[in-house]
Amino acid sequence: MDMLALIHAKKPGTIGIDGNSGAGKTTLAKELAEKLNGQIIPFDLFHKKERKDWNLKTDINDFGDFEKANQVIKRLLKGESFTLHNLYNHVDGTHSRSFRFEPKEVLIVEGLCVMRLNLDFKIFLHVDPKVALIRGKDRDIKERNLTEKQWVIKKHLFHDEYSKIIPELKNLADLIIDTTDHFPEIK
User: Fold this and answer.
1) Dihedral, 80, 27, 24, 85 alpha carbons, nearest 10
2) What separation in angstroms does the CA of 9 have from each of 2, 4, 95, 176?
3) Which of 25, 26, 97, 184 is deepest in the core (most CB within 10 A)?
4) Cβ-based neighbours of 8, under 8 Å, separated by 6 or more
């Protein structure tokens, strides 16, 4: 598959990459940003709740601040450079991160539920749920410092609950890629 040819044909100013935890969203975003002179916008920055406030009743549909993300995208498309503070930080699970946004040729937004944002080209990464769990748990415990208890809550929110809305999100995608067995070569 020549994904870059498809992207170039559409000439998007914004690209969204969605898919279950462990599907490869960040990996694809990094590769596309390098090849397309893109700015990556991790949608995780826009988590409304800190990790301490996650529980089994948290609604996946109300987890991300779509309004704030859309405002950031609009400012970048106008050519503005800016820094936002008090964004979600995966390392400690608080709203303690600052992030510098720079306009680039292409804005690449990656994260859960980004299909719901107003973006020009949307990619959904499909991964077998069992593979997603293995990839996601390993990363979350090693890189994001989640305890086992926190991971169980995260699994409920970002795997079990997210899985219920995957059909809706896939219907919004321009391109669906299966990353279960391998990651596609970006040409």
Assistant:
1) -40
2) 11, 8, 38, 17
3) 25
4) none
The pTM of the full predicted model, rounded to 2 decimals, is 0.85
Q: What is the DSSP string of 5-54?
A: HHHHHH--SEEEEEESTTSSHHHHHHHHHHHHTEEEEEGGGGBSS-GGG-
**Starting at the edge strand that comes first in sequence, how are the strands of the sheet with 106-110 ordered?**
38-42, 106-110, 14-19, 121-126, 175-178
| DSSP secondary structure letter of residue 3 | H
C-alpha distance from residue 182 to each of 1, 2, 44, 177, 179 (Å) = 13, 16, 24, 10, 5
- How far apart, in Å, do the first and last CA atoms of the chain sit? 8
> Which pLDDT does position 162 carry in this prediction?
82
Instruction: At 99, list the tokens.
Output: 């992030």
**Tokens, residue 123:** 């990619």
Domains along the chain? Answer: 3-178 (3.40.50.300)
45-99 pLDDT, tens digit each:
999 988 788 776 777 777 899 999 999 999 999 999 999 999 999 888 899 999 9
> pLDDT tens for residues 138-159?
777 777 777 777 777 667 666 7
